Protein: Receptor-type tyrosine-protein phosphatase C-like isoform X3
Amino acid sequence: MAGLCNVRILLLWVGIISLVNCQGSQDSSDKTGNGPATLTTPPPTTSIQTDSDNKTSPAVTQLNTTVTPTTQAPPPQCSYTVTPIKFGFQIDITSSTTFDYTININEKGQRKSMVQHSSQSSSHEIKHLKPCTEYEHSVTFLDSAGRENIHCNSTEKDNKTTTTIEMSKDDIKDATSCIPGYVCYQTDWDITSLQSTPNKIQDERCGNKTLCVKLGYNDICSDFTTTITSSTCRNFSFNSTKSISIDFLNPSEINQPAPTELPAKINPELPPNCKNLSIDYSCREHGRVNESKKLSELEPFTNYSCIGQIKDNDGNVKNTTPVHVNIECDFDFKTEKSSTNTSIKLSWTTTSKNCQHVPQNISYNCSCRPPSSDHKHKIAANKRGTCTVTGLQPYTDYTCEVQPIYNNKIVAKSNSVTEKTESGIPDPVTNLKVTVPEHNVIHVKCDHSKSPNGPENKCRVRLLTGGVIVNKTDTPNSDLEFRDLSYSTTYTVKVTAFNGRFESEPKTNTVHTQYNDKAVIGVLIFLIISVVVAVVVYKLYIKKRRESRNGVNEGVMLESTAIYMNVPPREWHHKESH
Ligand SMILES: *[C@@H]1O[C@H](CO)[C@@H](O)[C@H](O)[C@H]1NC(C)=O
Ligand SMILES: *[C@@H]1O[C@H](CO)[C@@H](O)[C@H](O)[C@H]1NC(C)=O
Ligand SMILES: *[C@@H]1O[C@H](CO)[C@@H](O)[C@H](O)[C@H]1NC(C)=O
Ligand SMILES: *[C@@H]1O[C@H](CO)[C@@H](O)[C@H](O)[C@H]1NC(C)=O
Ligand SMILES: *[C@@H]1O[C@H](CO)[C@@H](O)[C@H](O)[C@H]1NC(C)=O
Ligand SMILES: *[C@@H]1O[C@H](CO)[C@@H](O)[C@H](O)[C@H]1NC(C)=O
Ligand SMILES: *[C@@H]1O[C@H](CO)[C@@H](O)[C@H](O)[C@H]1NC(C)=O
Ligand SMILES: *[C@@H]1O[C@H](CO)[C@@H](O)[C@H](O)[C@H]1NC(C)=O
Ligand SMILES: *[C@@H]1O[C@H](CO)[C@@H](O)[C@H](O)[C@H]1NC(C)=O
Ligand SMILES: *[C@@H]1O[C@H](CO)[C@@H](O)[C@H](O)[C@H]1NC(C)=O
Ligand SMILES: *[C@@H]1O[C@H](CO)[C@@H](O)[C@H](O)[C@H]1NC(C)=O
Ligand SMILES: *[C@@H]1O[C@H](CO)[C@@H](O)[C@H](O)[C@H]1NC(C)=O
Structure:
């Protein structure tokens, strides 16, 4: 019993195979050892660990203490006493010399054993056993002659088994919860022999001395009773009722729907039995850890992480898991549009279903496609906005978009409208050719305007002489002839492109018609006739004069006068005779 040498206590699982070997040698030498029944079927050393997996059958404990003699002592003497104590046994070894002892504790009928080594004859406590359970035990040592597993004599003669004591309510103590959402109890008994209502869970986080039961969501803020019984001590029953505060709430079990509307609200599903909880969320923007915002201060289109602080009346505080919040406001546009020949003006009002107050610092980009030189306008506006996109082409179809912008980022869907710009001034006609194919005919030919900038593309031809418009014709063809014009006259041809609304800059050309060739021929014929008539008349006159000398005829005289009257003026006559 006295401390002779250095004490070394090791606790480990050891195969019984070696024990059996020893048993065999012992049987052959002194035949005093009565090994446990289980030793007749020796398992391999490694199989002991796998046996421990059999949860339905409790563990076996066996102790093997070997004492190595420090001095040569011919007949080694040793004996031991097993005393049941709380949570296990106390084993007192008495020996004449110091050896290396091996203590084996083995639950009766099981093959698993608990082994403890000791180099000193002394008192050892073996705990963590099952209550009300019969254990087999043996103490062996290795003597100086090298003989292994010499059995110490038990003071209880041939009895090699001892039963552990009853369990008491005091053996179970409250433990701090090793897992959120669980109620835990601690005991030094082997908890595999214990049962509980609700069912216990085994979790590595809690170690093998702690028994935990899971709380339901509805158990929070209520009185919760755990009953623990022992499968081995039939009479034992332990009841414990705890008032479960929100401290026991597992934050990850709280359902916190993320808000989708502004002003933001989070309505977590708190345990129904908790009547007077207050919950207060504070949010942080990613990257701005220092700035904390209330839910009411959240802005749209921004990522936040919000953590709620739950408080009850007793001052217990519990933080929730973070809720990720990013509220995307939708926008409904009511857009009006108007246009000139170079610009489109849009004016709109926006409403949002999920954002009561459309944020103040939202802005809009207006743009029209196909793009023009000056197509982007950023207009800061709140609900109501207008923008004018300028630099556009006349009479062209545009698709214009109003894109909401928040913090320089494109947000939400853009609103798109189509609009045609008004007609503008067309480009002038090209390749104007004015010819005079006949003496009083003018032919006009030109190419249509390349950009009519309006619904129509006509050539508007004006014919002027002396500053007076004598003809104005719109023609879809650019091929036109003016006939029956005055001869030998200067005409100005002015051609513009006409698009139904506007006329282009004119292209002008001036031409002269030629003399009247038909009139000249007529005059010549007349002259010839006149000369012929004159000659005839003259001859008649001469003849009459000769006759009047013989007797004057009044009638002929008159006829001669009438002929003179028909003769063209003298000037003319003179001119044509040229
Ligand atoms: C007892 O301990 C010795 C030495 O530690 C070991 O060799 C032997 O196998 C053990 N016997 C049993 C039955 O565990
Ligand atoms: C486990 O225990 C059950 C019942 O106690 C027994 O029938 C079975 O053989 C055991 N299995 C092993 C591997 O020990
Ligand atoms: C056990 O007791 C017997 C007599 O009862 C004795 O002969 C033997 O030496 C003892 N063994 C030991 C190891 O003490
Ligand atoms: C010896 O064991 C038997 C049953 O195994 C038991 O009835 C008896 O009381 C025990 N004796 C002592 C002294 O422990
Ligand atoms: C129980 O825990 C102790 C130490 O924490 C460890 O040595 C032992 O192997 C464990 N037992 C089981 C059955 O897990
Ligand atoms: C259980 O309790 C009853 C009486 O309360 C008693 O008679 C009985 O012996 C007890 N059983 C055990 C195993 O302690
Ligand atoms: C524990 O509670 C159960 C039911 O609530 C009851 O049947 C049992 O008698 C109680 N035991 C003790 C020791 O209070
Ligand atoms: C709830 O808490 C408020 C103060 O936090 C207290 O005035 C009120 O009485 C409580 N109500 C209940 C039903 O506990
Ligand atoms: C945040 O606050 C800490 C101290 O409160 C300060 O040292 C740190 O510079 C702050 N960071 C920012 C980004 O403001
Ligand atoms: C917000 O987070 C989502 C995903 O978590 C990511 O797709 C998005 O780009 C983030 N927005 C901003 C503005 O950081
Ligand atoms: C557009 O129309 C106005 C008259 O309404 C005109 O003065 C202007 O030159 C036109 N612009 C173009 C590019 O056609
Ligand atoms: C103008 O000229 C066109 C083409 O020669 C002709 O059809 C039209 O009658 C003329 N109009 C007038 C008013 O002389």
